[in-house]
Amino acid sequence: MTIRVILADDQPLIRAGLRMLIDQAPDIDVAAEAGTGAEAVQLTRDASPDVVVMDIRMPGMDGIEATQLITARDPRARVLVLTTFDDDDYIYGALRAGASGFLVKDMALEDILTAIRVVAAGDAIVAPGVTRRLIAQFSSQSRPGSGPRELTGITDREREVLRLVGLGMSNAEIAAALYITTGTTKTHVARLLTKLDARDRVQLVITAYQAGLVRAPH
Fold first, then answer.
1. What residues contact 88, with CB distance under 8 A and at least 6 apart?
2. Can you list the domains of the chain with their CATH numbers?
């Protein structure tokens, strides 16, 4: 099955570079390109892509507003945000808007393709370092003046899995840490998504911080 992608970036050279990269992948196809956030919203409605690769800084409607409109219309929509290391404030907004992950513009080309595949599969990019730092900061700001979020309805094992998800671990790493199979880990993660009403792994990480299962990095 081919993954259909919309590229949204106001810089034609960036879009051209991403298209050249994606054209080399037999399982990913560029369905359309957008130069503004408004174009991205309209093209998403028209083309129903699997993933929207969204720049944040664009003229007129920026990537955050576009992401919010896209995910509000279709909760299943997957937006992968293009960012740089100094975009923290923008990323907090993108998280609130429903982004499923982040691409750093200077990351390895193969990692970009992997990120698109992961998000298209319904998961999210929660990379140690950039994303974990951003999510930690986001979660600490999102509940001002309140204590840790209370978690109800999850088992002790699910709580431990949630903690490890919050640390940015993959399913394979969680399985190894808990001496369980990867399949069992996937089942725990799926149940957590349902019980905590989280759209993807990014929101599970946020929940882990809000619940105090993981300490925000300083």
1. 134, 137
2. 3-125 (3.40.50.2300), 139-210 (1.10.10.10)
Three-state SS sequence of the chain? CCEEEEEECCCHHHHHHHHHHHHCCCCEEEEEEECCHHHHHHHHHHHCCCEEEEECCCCCCCHHHHHHHHHHHCCCCCEEEEECCCCHHHHHHHHHHCCCEEEECCCCHHHHHHHHHHHHCCCCCCCCCHHHHHHHHHHHHHCCCCCCCCCCCCCHHHHHHHHHHHCCCCHHHHHHHHCCCHHHHHHHHHHHHHHCCCCCHHHHHHHHHHCCCCCCCC
pLDDT per position as a tens digit, 161-194: 999 988 878 888 899 999 999 999 999 999 999 9
Q: What are the backbone angles phi and psi of residue 123, rounded to the nearest 5°?
A: -95, -165
Model-wide pTM > 0.90: no
